[in-house]
Amino acid sequence: MEFYDKEVVLYSKRAVAKFEECRQNLKFCDVTLQSGQVEVKAHRIVLVAASPYFEAIFKDGLQEHKELVNCSDIPSDVLPSLVDFLYTGHLTIQSSTARELMATAHMLCLDGLVTGCARYLKTQLNTSNALSMLSFAETLGCSKLSEYALDYIGEHWTIIAQRKELLELSLIVFIRILCSDRFVPDNELEVVFAVVRWLEYKPTARAPHCSELVRHLHLGRIPADVLDEMWRIVRDTRVAEGLHLSKKKTEAIANARARRRSAFYMVKRNRISKYDIHRNYAFQRIIPNICAYEGRRAFCNRALKG
Fold it and tell me: Where in the numbering of this chain does the BTB domain appear (predicted)?
């Protein structure tokens, strides 16, 4: 049987409030946390109760009885507000320090604060930071922020695929995008172009990964003649060789799972059209969004010939 005494619960809340009052008045503080030039006084027992990170620090024989404890792992511009949060459970997340705060909360095993930061960063997503946000989330292993970023990247892929940040993505993060069920771009052809651009940006290092990337493309949704033309205009010979597909491989890829938003393409009457079964139920004229890519304007002319 579970039993709760309301008076004791109320007393506990008052005790927590009293700790904060003592800290504000610098009463009974037994430790000073230091990061750079910033110092914050606190009570060891409160810090230990809030995070196993501090328990590990204070168990260290060299730090156990020191009044001044070096916390260089915690950014100096985050430390004061973080300690406030440990005492009060309240914190104002700022755009300038949100990522630092989230990384620190992750290190301190403050799962609630990590979730709060992820929700805040979701509101800050835009076409210029979505890729770096995904890389950041993957580094931390924060699945929730990764999901937010992947949803946004899929919705705004036409713009994001043209940004230079895409070319700087690591192989792991790029594959994470391509294989995710949450990545739902409108035009599969634009995904192919992005892969080619990424490969040709550093062809020596990246050409060996061609087959690994192609495995995550859904080439069966792209007209064969358009796809053949795409392979022919690849400029780097190493990348071109890596992307060259035999008939057997092409058939295998065509039978691979489709992305959630299924679309079919048709080449007819000097135009490429797309039929999206989840949008409008009508054919839409598609002009490959690669005219902006240097040296590839000729592809549009050839691909659109009847």
Answer: 29-95
Query: Residue 150 has which token pair?
Result: 């992947």
Q: Which of 187, 207, 182 is nearest to 196 (CA)?
A: 207
The domain of 165 spans 96-183
Pair 153, 183: CB distance under 8 Å: yes
- Residues 180-220 have pLDDT tens digits of 998 988 888 899 999 999 999 999 999 999 888 988 888 87
Q: Which amino acid is at 208?
A: P
Q: With CA atoms as reference, report the closest residue to 109 among 60, 62, 58, 47.
A: 47
Q: Taking Cα atoms as reference points, which of 154, 140, 216 lies closest to residue 185?
A: 154
CA distances from 184 to 151, 170, 246 (A): 7, 20, 27
**Number of domains present in the structure of the chain:** 3
Distance (Å) of CA 243 to CA 73, 74, 162, 239: 44, 45, 21, 6
Same domain, 280 and 202: yes
> Of 70, 91, 112, which residue constitutes the final position of a domain?
91
CATH number of the domain at 124, please: 3.30.710.10
Alpha-carbon span 150 to 276, nearest angstrom: 21
Whats the size of the chain, residue-wise?
306
Q: Based on the fold, state whether residues 193 and 279 are members of the same structural domain.
A: yes
Structure-token pair, residue 170: 């690591």
Q: How far apart are CA 239 and CA 39, in angstroms?
A: 54
Could you read off the pLDDT of 30-84 as tens digits, one per residue? 899 999 999 999 999 889 888 999 988 888 655 556 788 888 899 999 999 999 8
| CB-side neighbour CA atoms (13 Å) of 182 | 15
Residue 289 and residue 241 share a domain = yes
For the CA atoms of 222, 223, 225, 230, the dihedral, rounded to the nearest 10 degrees, stands at -20
Domain boundary among 183, 204, 224: 183
Contact call for residues 35 and 76 (beta carbons, < 8 A): yes
